[in-house]
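Researcher: Let's do a round of design. I'm pasting the structure tokens now; please hold your answer until I've finished.
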């Protein structure tokens, strides 16, 4: 159950090249509480005071440091040998995620900088390297407690509180190198169209203007090892588009070739770039042929209604916090979610490792991709949030498992959106900007309540019993969607000036049941036994499923997270109740 070019631990599994080097592992590390490093030119000859295991942040035990106190400036250094036979190649340094501002030097020379804690970025470091020798990579990470910074569930106070946890500072996903030619693919945007039975490739090619000869690009598409199509075109400019007809007798019935949770079929595609007759770049990728649409108050997958049984997933681990401890740990989470009868996950306040999305693609788990929130409305917050969100939409676009974009949640960062026209316009703007990049997926502008423009009406409610849920929702749909009454006793479904347009309605947070404990909290009264837990869980789940106008739900949550102990699993992934019991209720 992998794609043809799958490489374990490869950090970018949708755009695979063979010639790469993983730079995770031991790095030199130093705190810079006085922010003196740049003035004292640490970048020219960096010496650490600690050793740190990348990609784990200093706050985690897995890093080897495990200091949870906030430090706003930290430095990393690593010596990397660049082989002599790499001369003539371009060397690209990739960071999958660094929180929050990264400044990178190579052999003391600035190579680039990036702002944003969740988007991947890279630099061409070729001009700064000595081939056939050791080279020094130095990174300074700058973080803050500012609530204008997209931070998600990271605390901005000294201690954890409510549902906010230990902050993440510095490198928290894989660092790696790859060796490429001057002429190479920069990206391919892959758009399926099941109604026309075609796939569109939007190419970005580097080095076209510098090419000494003719450039030609081929796309070789296969399905389960069988050839489908081979399409080539001449490259005469950096950005080109080609549509590929996927109708082929060897594939069998078209519907059996589509991607869905029941049959997560993936097409493999190999992109080969030629300069004259010489191969200068070879990239392996994949795609799924699937369609997400909305009609008559229903969400459709491949033109048929899909009932979404989602579970909230914050993606924290005991020893490594936001960083997955391994690729196998990601697979284990997905397998347990599927085992419990869920067909999707709402990845909450976190942009997850690309390998997680890969395995959702492979295993058929639906994903709602949600941005990490700011918590203060300010011009700086608007700029930082919008820039990083658009980076993320572009980077995650090709994953068939992602079926919904969620830029805002529960009015976080837009706390007065109910009546504030500026905050309303921000959510409208982000909605339309997202649609300009991806018109094919639903966008939810404020998951939970106080929606402006939104393709799905999503409501959060932690009512404790099924009877209580039915009392609130069974006969009150019209009153809720018209803002005559609140959806959960304290928040309205829509911001003022906006109204219901027949969107699908889902309950996208509920439950949060916790066992009796003095070490943390859940939603509502804590339970004392498995029987009490399952009775409450079943009552809530069946009540939601009994209402025809609700077309899906999202239970809170997969695992405990630090002081929040309302997971179906503990933080170290031990089931609290038999998983088959949860499955029976979800599928019953």
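Researcher: That's everything. Go ahead.
Model: Designed sequence:
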């Amino acid at each position: 159950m992998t794609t043809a070019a799958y490489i374990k631990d490869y950090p970018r599994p949708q755009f695979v090249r063979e010639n790469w080097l993983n730079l995770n592992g031991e790095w030199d590390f130093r705190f810079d509480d006085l922010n003196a490093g740049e003035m004292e030119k640490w970048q020219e000859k960096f010496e650490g005071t600690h050793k740190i295991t990348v990609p784990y942040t200093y706050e985690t035990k897995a890093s080897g440091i495990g200091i949870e106190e906030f430090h706003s400036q930290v430095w990393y250094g690593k010596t990397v040998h660049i082989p002599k036979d790499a001369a003539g190649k371009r060397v690209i340094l990739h960071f999958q995620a660094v929180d929050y501002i990264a400044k990178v030097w190579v052999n003391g020379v600035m190579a680039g900088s990036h702002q944003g804690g969740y988007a991947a970025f890279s630099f061409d470091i070729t001009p700064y390297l000595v081939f056939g020798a050791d080279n020094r990579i130095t990174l300074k990470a700058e973080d803050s407690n500012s609530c204008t910074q997209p931070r998600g569930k990271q605390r901005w106070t000294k201690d954890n509180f409510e549902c906010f946890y230990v902050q993440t500072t510095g490198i928290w996903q894989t660092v790696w190198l790859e060796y490429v030619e001057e002429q190479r693919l920069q990206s391919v945007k892959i758009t399926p169209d099941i109604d026309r039975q075609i796939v569109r490739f939007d190419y970005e090619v580097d080095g076209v203007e510098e090419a000494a000869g003719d450039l030609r690009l081929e796309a070789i598409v296969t399905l389960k090892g069988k050839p489908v199509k081979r399409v080539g075109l001449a490259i005469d400019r950096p950005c080109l588009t080609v549509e590929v007809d996927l109708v082929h007798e060897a594939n069998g019935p078209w519907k059996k070739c589509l991607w869905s949770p029941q049959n997560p079929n993936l097409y493999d595609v190999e992109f080969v770039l030629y300069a004259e007759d010489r191969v200068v770049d070879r990239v392996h990728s994949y795609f799924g042929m699937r369609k997400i649409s909305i009609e008559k108050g229903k969400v459709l997958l491949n033109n048929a209604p899909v009932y979404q049984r989602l579970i909230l997933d914050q993606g924290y681990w005991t020893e490594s916090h936001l960083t997955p401890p391994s690729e196998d740990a990601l697979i284990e989470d997905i397998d347990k979610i599927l085992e419990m009868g869920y067909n999707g996950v709402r990845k909450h306040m976190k942009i997850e490792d690309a390998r997680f999305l890969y395995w959702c693609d492979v295993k058929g788990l639906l994903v709602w991709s949600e941005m990490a929130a700011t918590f203060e409305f300010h011009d700086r917050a608007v700029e930082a949030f919008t820039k990083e969100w658009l980076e993320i939409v572009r980077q995650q676009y090709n994953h068939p498992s992602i079926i919904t974009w969620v830029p805002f949640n529960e009015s976080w960062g837009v706390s007065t959106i109910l009546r504030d026209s500026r905050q309303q316009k921000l959510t409208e703007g982000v909605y339309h900007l997202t649609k300009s990049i991806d018109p094919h997926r639903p966008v939810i502008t404020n998951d939970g309540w106080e929606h402006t423009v939104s393709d799905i009406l999503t409501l959060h409610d932690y009512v404790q019993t099924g009877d209580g849920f039915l009392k609130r929702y069974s006969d009150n749909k019209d009153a809720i969607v018209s803002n005559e009454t609140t959806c959960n006793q304290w928040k309205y479904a829509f911001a003022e000036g906006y109204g219901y347009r027949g969107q699908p309605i889902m309950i996208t947070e509920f439950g949060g049941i916790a066992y009796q404990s003095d070490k943390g909290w859940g939603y509502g009264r804590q339970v004392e036994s498995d029987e009490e837990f399952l009775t409450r869980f079943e009552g809530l789940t069946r009540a939601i499923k009994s209402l025809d106008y609700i077309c899906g739900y999202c239970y809170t949550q997969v695992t405990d997270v630090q002081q929040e102990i309302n997971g179906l699993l503990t933080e170290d992934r031990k089931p609290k109740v038999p998983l088959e019991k949860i499955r029976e209720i979800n599928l019953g």
